[in-house]
Amino acid sequence: MSEHVEADALTGPPRGVKARPLLRRRYLLPFALVLPIVIYEGLLIVYPIVQGIFGSFTRIELASSAATTWVGWDNYERMFSDPAFWKVIRVTLLFTGLVIVVALTVGLLTALLFNRPFRFRPFARGMLMMPWAIPEVPVVMIFIWILSPQFGVVNILARMLPGVTKNPQWLQVPELAMGWMVLISSWKAFPFYSLVILAALQAIPQELYESARVDGANRLQLFWNITFPGIGSTLELLVVLAAIFSFKQFTIIFLMTGGGPSGTTETIVIRIFNTAFRFYDYSYATALGVAGFVVSLAVALVFIMMQVRRAEDSA
Amino acid sequence: MVAKREDARVAAAKIDARRLFNTALLYLTVAVVSLIIVFPVYWMMISTFQPSKYILRFPPPLLPQELYFAQFAELFSEHPIAKWLRNSFLIAAMTMLLCMALSVLGAFALSNLRWPGRNLFGLFLLVTQMLPEVLILIPLYILYRRLNMLNSIPSLALIDAAFILPICIWILKGVFDNVPPEVLDASVVDGCTELGALWRIVLPLSAPGLAAVAVVAFFFAWNEYLYAGIMLSSGEFMPASVGLSTLKAIAQTPVEQYMAAGLVFSVLPVLFYLVMQKYIVSGLTAGAVKG
Amino acid sequence: MSDYTNRRQEGSRSTLNRRDFLRSASALAGLGLLAACAPAAQPATEVGADAPMERTTVRYLSWWFEEGNRGETWNNFVDEFNEYQAEIEVVAENIPFDQYTTKTIVGTQSGQLDGDIIMATPELAPRLIQSDLLVPLDDVLIRNDITDLSSAHDALRKDGHLYGLDMVTVAFGILYNKDRYEEANITPATTPQEWVDVSAALTDRENQKYGFFATHLVSEPSDFWFQLEVWCMPYDGIWAEGTTPLLTSDPIIQGLKLFKQMYDVAMPQGADNPTGYRLFQNGDVAQGLYVSAAVGAFTKDAPDVYPKLRSAPIPWETNKSIARIHPMMINKDSEVVEESMEFVTYMYQPDNYRRMVEGCEDVIFAQPSAARQEYLDGLEWLKPGFFGVDYLTPFDIVGDFVYNFNEFGQIVITNFADVLIAGKSVEEAMETAQVQAEDLADRIS
Fold first, then answer.
1. pLDDT in tens, C52-68
2. Quick one: which of A164, C66, C299, C403 has the most CB atoms within 10 Å?
């Protein structure tokens, strides 16, 4: 993601071509290098995607003798006129948006915190990454247990709040369920973001801070004028990554709420799974999948545009 | 400014008090944050190492009342945990090796070589990351059945690697970008081939990147359970992620034994992370920070 | 899984395993991975080639080979059959229940079912039969001279042929812990309202004592719907007739109100299925709607509680409950249909069938004449709740939605959950559900 490399690639012949013999010799080499990757990804990812897109224009009833028939845009018409679809989209955007905000905010704050010197810092940083290293299924197991209305330890805290006299049903009340899905997904994801931001913070030259301090800048000013711009491009990238990861989040939601209550945590991935594998409505599921694919492609395009603009700015 | 108007001693004391307060606040915040991070893990341990009579109670005791270890023996004798873990390990290790090998090629082409189509290749990789995995489950299954590749651990590793490879390439590209072009050029001028330069110069400088790729690929395959559940029909090949969800379905598994299973399943990735920690940090962050 | 099963599987598959492993290692050595892995799944005959005798392998897929006494019984039968003759080797392959349906569905979509002999749930079976994926099993009855096959099998016929043979019928009944009844000085209820009162009397929330538990979380949709389907019974209703949903009909509304009452006064609210089960094992939950096939599992999981278990009479006039049959079927695409048929025939020999049912501690005999009175008399929990009850099948209560059982169920439970949690009225929730179910009917007919 280095800036000058992008600039080279996107704005014509690279600067300093002559200094780079790598360019001139053996044009075939890069193609030979990426060919196995292209074939591999092409066969196992792109080909099935094409199949999926094709499937979305047919009617396929899983485990049924009905022949596959071409139905044109029927599945899409049904999708756009289905209020449940729009609800799923709203839930997906809400969940994705909240996870981006929560995970990145917590990631940023912890990075700022852990960037300050204190004793046991290396140890604390090691701990910080723990949630990232624990697989999702055990994470689900433990949080289901912590949130159990009968035995869950979180109820001890909840009972301290005024007015709470019985254990809340954490995963059955719509707002609480969505809140927990966001918190748990963020708990699992923020260490990674924090780590990356931390590295970005440490790459900011200390002299910038010193000279600003000499000019009498206070802490907030230091943050807004030096820290934030310094990690801006990193944050931008992390927003995209967080968007992709949370958009594809399946395990935690599927195993903890199954999309409920009342569909308030049913993101598009859950919907696709249910439609295809529980309701046997495969072709409609692929139409949903294509919709999801288009949405995430749009996110990717925004990201690419940002990169291009950045490259142009710096060129 | 303050010191000019007020007594210097008082000012110094004030600064001292403030510094002390700030330090205390810092440690307090660190403590709270650490608690939030660590508590669920702690609670998993608590629920594993106590007999269930202490856990099946409200409010549950916050400190362990009695240590108990028999659940591990029960777990291993009642369920083929060892076999599950072995399968998970094989899948994850194969995925890891494959990703390491292929991502070196991809990242080198993407980072260190200039060629037309480079952007297109980058875009291609990005697009493969955009779809929810569940979307292509059935087409992939059909493909696999045709190729007679169902029910085999290496075949599943191929799928896992295909899903995570683009991210691996991206991570490694970030690291390769840090290799100064001048060094590379010099080596080629010295009569070294591009591949020679990759082998002798880029790779030795990029060990953290490879470590990061290894960990990311390993974790992904270790975690994956949607495809593992469908593509491997024989219990012989069942990995721990799938096995664990069967324990969840079996309501009668005692709590402490169930939690023990979760713990056992987490141990390897956590250890792997701790061992590689030093490299992973620089490897994972190289690309992101420069961007 | 018992140690025994574990060892058995290791033994039978070790050749395949090692070969696979070597192949994987060599595959990784080069980048020709795709090519190298392609033949990794071995054709059955090659496994046999290493064995001393040429046996034909038959793959038998089910979810129950690790389920306590049921698993043990089936593993023993597979071994017994393999010893009993020398040509066929039946291999038991366990697939976790969660994945079983998904996997079968994926298989059918790819044009081919996996496995030679397969088990099916009551909802999966009609789909498979409709799709012509199975071999008729009429021969099994002829060869074993069976004339009294249960009428529940009517649902497994198409064009005069029989496509599945029941291996376990699970019937719903009210199971209770007799100590808890005695402590509270309670006798089993005889009307739905009495049932609620009894359950309330058994509940003491402060001390974690509950009168009743049923799965009620949308995160466990299959279990929730599985249990909720019974609640059309108290007031003698059905969920749907043909393609017409009857969700706003009086008996359904009444039945769901009864569930809501039970939830309010007697249930551990928000507890998931495993928690509910554990509470029952501890004696903290006094009663539940349990299927007959699950009772046997207590002998192993909770030997202390098992002797205290009794069944209550069905507390509604009609004495109706639901029975779900799980048939064994043979895949039409199998290359070893004849050999598979041998095993199914063996299992359905009246004597073997009886030993199987008894081994699993099941109580409903698809061949009534095979039942042994002494065995049934020995089960203290059998009467009255699981005996002499008038059983209906899912077909009878959800009509044509049996082909879309999960989706129909999802509509009901999602809307009903709003009643439990969000305080919506049953009438209002079911009105919404009715509209959604009608949409579903339009789509599938």
1. 568 999 999 998 887 77
2. C66
Percent of chain C with pLDDT over 90: 53
> Which of A186-190, A203-207, A270-274 is the least confident region?
A203-207
The predicted structure's pLDDT at residue B235: 73
Query: Which of C37, C101, C109, C131 should we substitute to test contact with A (largest number of A Cβ atoms within 10 Å)?
Result: C109
**CA C149 to CA C98: how far, in whole Å?**
30
- Quote the tokens at residue A200: 């970005």
Residue C443: C-alpha distances to residues A286, C133, C439 (Å): 17, 24, 6
Subunits with at least 3 CB pairs below 8 A relative to chain C? A, B
Cβ contact (<8 Å) for A289 and B135?
yes
The number of C-beta contacts closer than 8 angstroms across A and C is 101
ipTM summary value: 0.85
The pLDDT of residue B113 is 81
Q: Compute the average pLDDT of residues C429-437.
A: 96
DSSP state of A281: -
Does a structural domain hold residue B65?
no
Chain A segment 63-92 residues within 8 A of B by beta carbon are: none
CATH topology of domain A75-314: MetI-like fold (1.10.3720)
For chain A, give every domain's residue range.
75-314
Residue C173 pairs in a beta bridge with C290
Domains belonging to chain C, first-starting first, are 3-168+326-373 (3.40.190.10), 170-324+378-444 (3.40.190.10)
Higher pLDDT, C277 or A312: C277
Mutate to test the interface with B, among C4, C60, C95, C118 (most CBs of B within 10 A): C95
Q: pLDDT class for B289, splitting at 50, 70, 90?
A: low
Whether the per-residue pLDDT at A128 is higher than 80: the answer is: yes
B152 shares a domain with B29: no
Q: Do B37 and B82 share a domain, yes or no?
A: no
Is B252 in contact with C297 (Cβ distance < 8 A)? yes
Collect all residues with Cβ–Cβ distance below 8 Å to C52 and sequence separation of at least 6: none
DSSP string, B146-194: HTT--S-HHHHHHHHHHHHHHHHHHHHHHHHTTS-HHHHHHHHHTT--H
Shortest CA distance from B147: residue in chain C: C38
C313 at interface of A, judged by CB pairs closer than 8 A:
no
Tokens representing A133 are 């290293």
Q: Are residues B47 and B77 in the same domain?
A: no
Domain assignment present for B61: no
Please give the residue range of the domain that contains residue B230: 70-290
Q: Which of B52, B155, B229 lies at the smallest CB-CB distance from C40?
A: B155
**C312: CB partners within 8 A, 6+ apart:** C173, C174, C175, C176, C188, C189, C287, C384, C385
| pLDDT for position C19 | 41
How many angstroms separate the CA of residue B265 from the nearest CA in chain A? 8
Contacts for B24 with CB less than 8 Å, ≥ 6 apart: none
pLDDT tens-digit map of A192-231: 899 888 888 888 888 888 888 888 888 888 888 888 888 8
Q: Distance between CA A99 and CA A90 in Å, rounded?
A: 14
- Phi/psi at C418 (nearest 5 deg)? -65, -30
Neighbours of chain A (3+ CB pairs under 8 A): B, C
For the ranges A297-311, C242-256, C429-443, which has the lowest average pLDDT? Answer: A297-311
Residue B141 lies in a domain: yes
Whether residue A281 lies within 8 A of chain C, CB to CB, comes out as yes
Q: Which pLDDT score, from 0 to 100, does residue C41 have?
A: 39
* B171 found inside a domain: yes
Say which CATH number the domain at B81 has: 1.10.3720.10
